[in-house]
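The following block was generated as part of the benchmark described in Methods. Ligand: uridine-diphosphate-N-acetylglucosamine.
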Amino acid sequence: MRVLLTGGAGFIGQHVLARLLQRGHEVRVLDSLRPDVHRDGRDWAPPPGVELQRGDVRDARACDAALAGVEAVVHLAAKVGLGVDIADMPDYASSNDAGTGELLAGMARHGVSRLTIASSMVVYGEGLGLCPEHGAVSPGPRLEASLAAGDFEPPCPICGQRLGTALVGESVALDPRNAYATSKMAQEFYAANWARVVGGSVAAMRYHNVYGPGMPRDTPYAGVAAIFTSALRAGQAPRVFEDGGQRRDFVHVRDIASATVAACEQVTEGVRAFNVGSGTPRSVGEMARALALALDGPAPVVTGQYRLGDVRHITADSAKLRRELGWEPSVDFTEGMTELARQPAG
Ligand code: UD1
């Protein structure tokens, strides 16, 4: 298939590109090589046989040129991170909302009807917890006073009891709590609106915490696995916030790529959302220990610090992806973390 991949020069994009090529697709990359991502100013060179068009999805002419002759689009180009500052809001709205709108309008002009988009588990907000009395409930935002007192678990919003683990399925109500999450939810809705009008198909991939080779490091938007790796390489202990018991689903970028390409190949009608996670939640403390072990570095330090915008636990139920697209994650957690720890510093 001839596929347009937006954001193909990014961390996830390069792995999706490799997977598309491995599966025999012909790929054109549209990427603006934005300076906050491609900081060293070096131009990224695509692999042989891949056409790179340097341009922005917000530019209708760039979209027209990129969309000519393609059969499917994988849309990864976006401003990522969680929105550390309110001043970032216009850029999220522009890069992610307006950019997707422009791309969809271009797809309608060119009669391209298959879309796979990168979404995120952040659209679920605090996710779900299991109350012994009330079943699966959605916790409210945690109070700063509770966090400051070292009380990190969000209680049941009805009775205040401690909550157990519950996996978040795709039908859970969306609850975006920052600008990035809001823009990802908006992208999904714009895509669904477009699909209804043009009869197109959409696969919205709600990625969990992605890690692996090429992961951005040392930026305000770096994920925790990259932050810990950088610390360990500098001979410092990873600094684990809260009590280290917060759970995430760390999913390897090669598994993210295989899921995304499976969706691009198989979703040809309707609008479908898929959680993309390994299926095995881990605590942040456990992840820090795995990296420290792999690098033979100092043991993690649990600091009790907190970030007000952080959710406590967010863990995916990726059964739908396995069931409907026949996808299986292939990278084991310890092997994946060891590979990340040992990748050359870049
Ligand atoms: C991450 C992604 C987000 C994605 C989401 C999907 C990043 C920066 N964010 O958000 O884009 O949509 O997953 O689920 O990749 N922590 C520490 N020490 C540190 C830094 C963080 O203990 O030095 C803890 C945080 O308090 C948090 C956890 O690690 O509990 C994860 O933080 P982070 O990597 O920023 O990711 P998410 O907030 O889960």
